[in-house]
């Protein structure tokens, strides 16, 4: 789990994925929908870790489960 | 959709009209956002027929919008574009303009938006003549005026211009533009802060170590040397765009999204910014000039105009006391980027036995306004299968990866639409303009009053003069130089890693 400001904000995905097993932290984030008015029109996106970028130099088949 | 209106562009034969205003209006037209009874009337001194004017605008619109500018839509749109030759310093020409606009409006009437896309020296005469000719009167619909930047060149001239504008228009009719506020990513600062609940609790002096706002331009002054040399980076970037971004980062939550609620909060921030002392300008700022600047077109050999500046500002309120805001901008920099970095404090205690504890990277939130619009949050992760080795990882959100693949529209598109709809939230109020000059004047005057001191030079393509590094070091911080993609590519092959011994 990722904690921020005393509040649980997102669950890290733990366990087998199609690319092998990994942990992928994500935060669900409200962002302004581009090209909309009024300004407070929001949509949800994710802040996510790019698995390939982050752990490119280690074996992807690593098992954490 | 907007109401029926006539948009009168002053300075219609100029660059801004062709490259920004008309493409933005055309895009809004194609999206069905303009009322069918929307007319555009351009005015400038050059003699031109309606058709010649349309032809010229079409060429630029095609260049700007590419394939998005299809002939069929353009023909429909161009039918509502007209041109009137006239001199803005001549009152008679306003009466002629008034007659022409009335004739085009016929019985439809409607609102009128006057866009001053002219040199700043003409803003005063234009508003005076708009008033003198009765064009500012709201007897048959609303009348609004958009004033371009720069609005004044110091506090005194901004006050003088505000007085002239207020002689002709009520403040509610005045829309001072800063196109940065029309950028999606700048507006998203509000959404990011106030439509998410997890960031606001840490958005203060308890968690934030310092804030860095960078506007880097790769380009040199090019053909704008004449103008730029009289302005310099502090007038060109800091007083307007950077102060507005600072306000969006620092403001308290407005109670609702409405023009005055938002602008009141920005004014509170500007009121809380400690006004720098011109006498000690080198304590809180540094300036520089790129090597070769004085050989640019229209730049005098002996020019001491800064093309780079970095300024520390402090906000004296409960939220930000003790948190330095470092603003820096320059031409001929290492990369083109506008970004806001919120550097968080280090964890209060580290249970891991990190060899180089003092260098451990604490959390950092990077909001890239342009290009490569993105939000990134860095945090420490354990490297799998490598003992207790930590590395900095990033949670990232890239606009280009966004599910719907929306194209980010040009800032003017949004701002013109808002002005037509009477929403002044993203425009600057008279008090904001004056307060931001009040903050920047001492920095500008402080440096211009020391012409004898050697101006630090920097090599084009770098992050500014070496003195800028010394400056921030004296404030106990360092610059965070990760710009756009180019720098990321450099970083990725060798991610930052720190080895941790089991405690
Ligand atoms: N271009 C940009 O990207 C940009 C960006 C931000 C802000 N701005 C601001 O927008 C304003 C316009 O910029 P610009 O680049 O479009 O300038 P520009 O290309 O020089 O255009 C100026 C316009 O003013 C007209 N003009 C000059 N004197 C006049 C007079 N006495 N009566 C009537 N019209 C007159 C000129 O036409 P005639 O010679 O035919 O009269 C021309 O159409 C400036 O305040 C600038 O700071 C521009």
Explain this structure.
- Chain A is mainly β.
- Chain A has one helix and six strands, in the order E-E-E-E-E-E-H.
- Chain A has one domain (2-54).
- In chain A, the strands form three sheets. In chain A, strands 1-2 form a two-stranded antiparallel ribbon. Chain A has a two-stranded antiparallel sheet with strand order 3-4. In chain A, strands 5-6 form a two-stranded antiparallel sheet.
- In chain A, strand 3 and strand 4 (20-24) form a beta hairpin.
- The model of chain A is unreliable at 1-22 and 55-65 (pLDDT under 50).
- Chain B has two domains: 5-148, Rossmann fold; 181-409 and 429-498, Dihydrodipicolinate Reductase, domain 2.
- Chain B has helices spanning 15-30, 50-65, 71-78, 91-105, 123-132, 155-168, 184-194, 225-250, 259-272, 281-284, 411-421, 430-448, 466-474, 485-491, and strands at residues 5-10, 38-44, 81-85, 111-116, 143-147, 174-176, 208-216, 285-290, 308-313, 325-330, 337-344, 353-354, 364-370, 374-382, 388-398, 457-458, 497-501.
- In chain B, a hairpin with a 3-residue loop joins strand 13 (364-370) and strand 14.
- In chain B, the strands form two sheets. In chain B, strands 12-17-15-14-13-11-7-10-9-8-16 form an eleven-stranded mixed beta sheet, with helices on both faces. Chain B has a six-stranded parallel beta sheet with strand order 3-2-1-4-5-6.
- At the A-B interface, strand 5 and strand 6 of A face helix 7, strand 14, strand 15 and helix 11 of B.
- The structure holds NADP nicotinamide-adenine-dinucleotide phosphate.
- NADP nicotinamide-adenine-dinucleotide phosphate (NAP) is lined by residues 11-16, 20, 44-46, 87-89, 117-120, 122, 148-149 of chain B.
């Amino acid at each position: 789990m990722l904690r921020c400001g005393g509040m649980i904000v997102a669950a890290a995905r733990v366990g087998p994925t199609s690319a092998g097993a990994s942990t992928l932290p994500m935060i669900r984030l409200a962002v302004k929908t581009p090209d909309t008015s009024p300004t407070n029109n929001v949509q949800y996106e994710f802040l996510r870790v790019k698995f390939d970028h982050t752990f490119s130099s280690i074996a992807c088949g690593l098992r954490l489960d | 959709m907007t109401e029926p209106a006539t948009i009168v562009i002053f300075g219609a034969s100029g660059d801004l009209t062709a490259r920004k205003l008309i493409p933005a209006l055309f895009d809004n037209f194609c999206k069905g956002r303009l009322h069918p009874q929307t007319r555009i009337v351009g005015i400038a001194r050059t003699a031109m027929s309606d058709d010649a004017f349309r032809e010229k605008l079409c060429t630029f619109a095609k260049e700007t919008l590419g394939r998005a500018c299809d002939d069929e839509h353009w023909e429909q749109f161009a039918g509502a574009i007209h041109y009137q030759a006239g001199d803005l310093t001549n009152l008679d020409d306003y009466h002629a303009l008034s007659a022409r606009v009335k004739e085009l409006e016929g019985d439809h009437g409607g609102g009128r938006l006057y866009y001053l896309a002219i040199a700043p020296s003409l803003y005063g005469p234009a508003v005076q003549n708009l008033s003198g000719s009765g064009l500012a009167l709201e007897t048959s619909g609303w009348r609004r005026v958009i004033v371009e930047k720069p609005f004044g060149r110091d506090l005194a001239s901004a006050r003088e211009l505000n007085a002239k504008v207020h002689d002709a228009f009520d403040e509610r009719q005045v829309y001072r533009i800063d196109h940065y506020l029309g950028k999606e990513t700048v507006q998203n600062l509000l959404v990011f802060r106030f439509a998410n609940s997890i960031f606001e609790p840490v958005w203060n002096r308890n968690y934030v170590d310092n804030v860095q706002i960078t506007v880097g331009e790769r380009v040199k002054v090019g053909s704008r040397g004449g103008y730029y040399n009289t302005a310099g980076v502090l007038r060109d970037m800091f007083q307007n765009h950077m102060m507005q971004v600072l306000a969006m980062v620092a403001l308290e939550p407005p109670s609702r999204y409405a023009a005055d609620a938002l602008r009141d909060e920005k004014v509170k921030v500007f009121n809380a910014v400690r006004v720098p002392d011109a006498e000690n300008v080198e304590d809180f700022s540094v300036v520089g000039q790129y090597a070769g600047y004085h050989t640019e077109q229209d730049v005098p050999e002996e020019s001491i105009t800064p093309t780079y500046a970095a300024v520390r500002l402090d906000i004296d309120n409960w939220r930000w006391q003790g948190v330095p805001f470092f603003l820096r901008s320059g031409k001929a920099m290492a990369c083109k980027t506008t970004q806001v970095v919120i550097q968080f404090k280090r964890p209060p205690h580290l249970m891991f036995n990190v060899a180089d504890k003092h260098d451990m990277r604490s959390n950092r939130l990077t909001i890239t306004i342009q290009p490569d619009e993105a939000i990134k949050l860095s945090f420490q992760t354990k490297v799998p299968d490598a003992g207790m080795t930590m590395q900095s990882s990033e949670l990232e959100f890239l606009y280009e990866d966004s599910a719907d693949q929306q194209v980010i529209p040009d800032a003017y598109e949004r701002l013109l639409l808002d002005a037509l709809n009477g929403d002044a939230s993203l425009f600057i109020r008279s008090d904001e303009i004056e307060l931001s000059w009040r903050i920047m004047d001492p920095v500008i005057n402080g440096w211009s009053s020391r012409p004898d001191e050697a101006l630090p030079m920097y090599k084009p393509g770098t992050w500014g003069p070496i003195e800028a590094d010394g400056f921030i070091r004296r404030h106990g911080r360092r610059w965070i130089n990760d710009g756009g993609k180019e720098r990321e590519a450099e970083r990725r092959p060798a991610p930052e890693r720190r080895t941790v011994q089991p405690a």
